[in-house]
Each structure stands twice: as C-alpha cells, then as structure tokens.
C-alpha cells in the first residue's frame, strides 16, 4: 500500500473505531439548542432571507455552523443526521489528534493515555454528543497543531485550519495572530535553506529507552547565529513580501468574515459579541476579571477533575524541567489556549467549563507525562525515582476517583437518553399535523429550549414561538405543556433561564395532540 494511502487510512480507521464505540456506548446523541438554531438559521440563509435573531435568548451565531445548516437544507430532517455524524466523528478525531500529538512530542504510550483521559471526561462526551461547535473547533485547532509539529513553520496550512476554526470560536483568531508573529520572527529564508542542506546533529532521530526512536528535536537548536537576521528586520521583510501578505490575509480571514457575516445578517459587525454579552447577563453567568480568578480554575477542574489537575500541574513542571525540548510546543499551545480563554472571559464572555476544553485536552497530554514521562529519563537519572513516586501518587488519585468518574459518565448517558427522548417526542408532535399551516397564532412553550426544535420541525421562524414567561394571556394560537414532571425536570435550557414552568392551560384552548412527553392545546 502506498505511504500516502497509509497516512490517511490509519487515522481514518482510528476515528471510525472510536466513533463506533461511542455509538455503541452513547447511542442517543442529539443537537443542542445552539446547533438546532444553526440549522434553522442556515435554512433561512439557503432560502435567501436573513436569519431570524428576534426570539428571546438566541445563541451566538457561528458562521461555519450556519453554513453547514445551509448546505444540509435540501436534506430536510436529514440535516440533523449529518450534524450528528459530524459530532461523533469530531469527538473521535479529537481523541486521535491528542494521541498523535502526545506520540510525536513524547511517545505512543503517553499519547494513548492522554487520548483515554480526554475520551472519558464527561464534558467532552456531554458536549460532543450534543453536537456543540466546540468539538469541531478543537479538532481543527489540534489539526493545525499537528501540522506544525510534523513540519515546523508550515505556514499557510496551519493558518488555513485556524481560519476555519475561527469561524466557530473567536479564540482561534488569537492563535492565528500569535502564529503569524511566530512565523515573522522565525529564521530567515537563508538560514532555513542552509538547515535543509546541512542539518545539524539534533535533526536526526534520537534513540529513546530500550532502543525506541524519538521524533526529531527542534531544528532551531542547530541554526548558526550568523545566518539569523535581526528579529525586527526579519519580521518586516517577511510581512511585506507577497508570501507574507497571503499569510496575513489568512490570519485575518476569520475575524473579517465573521464581522461581514454579522453585518450582512444582523446589521452590526459586532452583533455576535454584543448579543453574547447580553445572554451572559440574562443568564447571570460568571464573567469578568474577578470571576475569572474565582471561577476559571473551577471551570478547568470541571473538565479534568482533581486527579487531572494535580497530574497536569506536575506534568507541566516536570516536562519543562527535564523534557523541555520535547514539550516546548505543547507548553506554548496549552498556555495560548488557556490565555485566550482568560482574555475573552475578562472581556465579558462566560466562564464555563466548555470553553476550557481545548486547554484541558492539551493539558491531558501532560497528565500522561506525569504518569509515564519518567520512562524518557536515563535509567540512572537522579529524578527518575522521584518522578515514579509522583506518578504513583497521580495514579492512586485516578483510581480513587474512578467510581466518581463512572458516575459522571453514566449521568451523561442517562441524560442523553432522557433528553433525547423528549426532543424526539417534540419532533414527533410537530409531525402529527396538529399545527395548522399557516399557524393560526403564536406557539407558547414551557421554556426557551423548545423554540429552535419546533422552529426546525415546523419550518417556521423562531419568533413565531414564545416562552410562556413572555406572555401571560393567551387569546389564540397554541399552548404546549409538559406531560409530566419528568419532562419539566429534564428539559431545562439553563438553571438561570427566566421561565415559569406553569401547567395552567389558558381558557378556551382544547387538546389536539399528545404523546409521552408533550400535550398540545389549540385555539384558532
């Protein structure tokens, strides 16, 4: 088999196997509130109209997610199937990329342990199998990091992936700018060419423990100081060249395209930022510099849990002290990921665990380093025994935490099953024909979570559906009620969602449809 085919077949088989395992263990994934809205807005874009942002508590629009909604519009309900395929595959791809990065930076066992940590943490499973955009974003960002690991200063391929990632999450904008600066301040073309012709000793693969070969060390270590131009002059020359102009365009593509998207669809180039801040205020989310200090570590800890936090802290220190050359790129990437989260949180965006998942995924590699990195030291190294002792402590923490982790992952499975069933019942209700076409009035629903799902299933604007907390008196239209307290308990958008889950049916309304989860009343 050709090498190029093997290069694609191995990761494809890995991702397919992990995706299949996820489908077996967690078979009931479904698109969350934000992603269903993206499908609704994408359908409106495909029909040539601006997205309807007028409903209460609209999520932040993400241009790439809305584009997927537009492209899948001809599939009808099949758009949800495509979305879930992307979701499961993205989670599998994140696991594979963490494995590859850990393998290239350190060795395969470390990569495998890091991937296992990521794929068993509840936030990745919960958010990934609800099709949040964060998992495709993380996959694109890790893909860019893998390219840079395999080919230092790769340039445009890295920026291209970050540009796509930047149409899902704004943190990628900061990564693109940081990478552009790194390229501009890098070695001159002369030194790079010289390094290709006459590589130094550190360019060769280094033997590891028990004869295992290691990845090449950083080429920059062998570059002659006489071949490197002064940093500022080099950066200026790089940026004014035609190649540099193309790299700058790639680095700025995502924020510019996002601003244009907001301007065209909402009339304001900053709509996504201002709208997100309004939602943060409405839901009383933690935000700002003070809350960042108080709640930021807790958000990260919610992903890694306390054994992972201890392991990550120790792994970072030990890797920096004894494996600095191997770990340099990973340490910088983790610092950038956490720094970007901190910067946006201080600027007014929400401090929630989901936004720390990229940094946590990179730190998972250093948790694996804490457990297995001692193997990369020489047998007689003075710190080998101490590192083994710390690894034993971290392993004991994970073993003690194992029942809790089982409970967390089991809760994810039961929540997906319960909430997925309620979501499907809502779609089934829309297919009964009980809703007239056109609607004879607005649809009142128990809370905001039902709005995008009904809008998608009925092919109506989200503003035609309101929460019962927004209207006290119902004179005509539809009234959707939960069929049981189980639905009320399991169909909550957010604990701070300002809704009133009242079951009082307005006078004059009569029941026209029902199923296990929902009761529909109508007065037309």
Outline of the structure:
Helices cover 62% and strands 4% of the residues. It is mostly helical and 524 residues long.
Description:
Helices cover 62% and strands 4% of the residues. The chain is mostly helical and 524 residues long. It has a five-stranded mixed β-sheet with strand order 2-1-3-5-4. The N and C termini lie far apart (67 Å). The chain is globular and about 85 Å long. β1 (443-445), α18 (450-458) and β2 (465-467) form a beta-alpha-beta unit. The protein is built from 19 helices and five strands.
Write the layout of secondary structure elements.
Elements (H helix, E strand, L loop, with lengths): L2 H23 L7 H14 L16 H9 L6 H28 L2 H13 L1 H7 L5 H17 L5 H10 L5 H14 L4 H9 L33 H10 L1 H25 L4 H12 L5 H35 L1 H23 L10 H16 L11 H47 L12 E3 L4 H9 L6 E3 L9 E6 L2 H6 L19 E5 L3 E6 L1
Parallel strand pairs: 1-2, 1-3
Antiparallel strand pairs: 3-5, 4-5
Helix pairs in contact: 1-4, 2-3, 2-18, 4-5, 4-7, 4-16, 5-16, 7-8, 8-9, 8-12, 9-12, 9-15, 14-15, 14-16, 14-17, 15-16, 17-18
Fraction in beta strands: under 5%
How confident is the prediction overall: mean pLDDT? 86
Radius of gyration: 26 Å
**Topology pattern, helix = H, strand = E:** HHHHHHHHHHHHHHHHHEHEEHEE
The largest sheet, given as strand count, sense and whether it forms a barrel, is: 5 strands, mixed
Low-confidence segments, ≥5 residues, pLDDT <50?
Answer: 188-229
Can you count the beta strands?
5
Count of alpha and pi helical runs: 19
Instruction: Trace the largest sheet across and list its strands.
Output: 2-1-3-5-4
Proportion in helices: 55-70%
| Overall outline | globular
Secondary-structure class: mainly alpha
Give the end-to-end Cα distance, rounded to a whole number of Å: 67 Å
